[in-house]
Amino acid sequence: MRTDATPDLGDLVIVLLASTLAGLRDRLEDDGFSDASVLVAELTDRCDTYLEEVGS
Predict the structure, then answer these.
(1) Helical H runs in the chain?
(2) pLDDT of amino acid 55
(3) Residue 23 to residue 19: CA distance in whole angstroms
(4) What is the distance between the terminal CA atoms of the chain, rounded to a whole angstrom?
(5) Nearest-angstrom CA–CA distance, 25 and 29
(6) Cβ distance 37 to 28 under 8 Å?
(7) Which of 11, 28, 34, 45 has its CB surrounded by the most CB atoms within 10 Å?
(8) What integer pLDDT is reported at residue 2 of this predicted model?
(9) Crossing angle, helix 34-55 and helix 9-30, to 10 degrees?
(10) pTM for this predicted structure
(11) How confident is the model over 1-56, as pLDDT tens digits?
């Protein structure tokens, strides 16, 4: 766990990853790949949780 609350470059990468995963999740769902969409949704949630923890 991080002890420094200052955002760094790694946090920016996680933000970009979460955004990319959210778009992929939506496209997979639209194309009928619901199982893969659920997996990507879980990864997106993990990224969001990380960012919430860092932000608090």
Answers:
(1) 9-30, 34-55
(2) 76
(3) 6
(4) 13
(5) 6
(6) yes
(7) 28
(8) 61
(9) 150
(10) 0.77
(11) 566 667 788 889 999 999 999 999 999 999 999 999 999 999 999 999 988 888 77
- Count how many residues are written for the chain: 56
| Cα distance between residue 51 and residue 33, in whole Å | 27
d(CA 37, CA 8): 29
Tokens 């002890």: give the residue.
Answer: 3
2 phi/psi in degrees, rounded to 5: -75, 145
Instruction: Name, in order, each residue with C-beta under 8 angstroms of 16's C-beta and a sequence gap of 6 or more.
Output: none
Q: Strand, coil or helix: what is 49?
A: helix
pLDDT of the residue at 3: 64
